[in-house]
Amino acid sequence: MKISYDVIHIRVKRPFAISRDVTVEKDTVIVRIEHDGVVGFGEAIPYPYYGDHIEAVKGFLDIAIPIIQSEFEDPFDTKRIEARLHEIAGRNFPAKAGIMDALYDLIGKILDIPVWKLIGVPSEPIKTSYTIGLGEIDEMIDDMQNHRDFEVFKIKLGRPNDYDIIKAMRDATNKPIRVDANAAWDAKEALKKIEFMAELGGFEFVEQPLHPNDFQGLKFLKERSPLPIVVDESVLTSTDIPRLLGYTDGINIKLAKSGGIPEAIRMIEIARAHNLKVMLGCMVETGLGVAAAAQIAPLVDYVDLDGNILLAEDPFVGLPVKDGYIHLTDKPGLGVEPKQKPQEVQNEQL
What we know:
By secondary structure, this protein is of the alpha/beta class. It is built from eleven helices and 16 strands.
């Protein structure tokens, strides 16, 4: 196997604001694995909130690439490769996701089957929410109206005028709304706002209302909230799930924070075993990262795979989205390809 990576720059259509930051542009890393003339791609999108930065992703890849290349020849040896990646470093989950998802893309292409079929997932259309970032209320309503083909919306909250945003967005559509505070509230504030949403009706659940480590607050909410609570920042990998039992109604899985497709599947299985609802989300990322997540999306309860839709230009093509649904195809691998062949960035030790 020959492994390389490329750093590419992406921009959003409009500034995408959440309670703690605003995204206008960012770098992401595209991992490329070649074997016998077949090439697989995976995305390693860093997210600073979890301590992941572009230099950390590159640094891990620079160390991991020569090790994996020297120790493994067979791309089908995914379990041992994944275990070796964890031995190299305990975290660096985005970089691991880039490698693991590229392996799955490669294997699917070698076998000439899509990844969803490779792992035994049904190919039903996937309903995804469309996320509306924080902004002026009229801008948020315009964003909603411009994406009226979606059947469910997710709105970001975490500002002093949350009540006004909640009321305005509820009045603007009769479709279901999900809410994400990105850890902006305390428990009592969260309960009041959740009760307000419940009175208005039509809200599905509330995502990450509290600080990731506020377990006392989560327990307070779970016992009193009229709407389900789903945690995101509180859970990265399957090892985090047991400590959340009794504190939440569901978890949000993202490939970039878990380490890729195989770990995400483990998380789904463990969550199901404990009767937790499962959401599958994404970062602001390209269609490559979204396509990887889409392969397992039919296994979960809620899907929020719209990161590439937020981009001014998606550098990957091939994942059809129509009327708010992602449609898995019979294309081999992850089903997407770069618009332009990424320039290979080789590790200096190769």
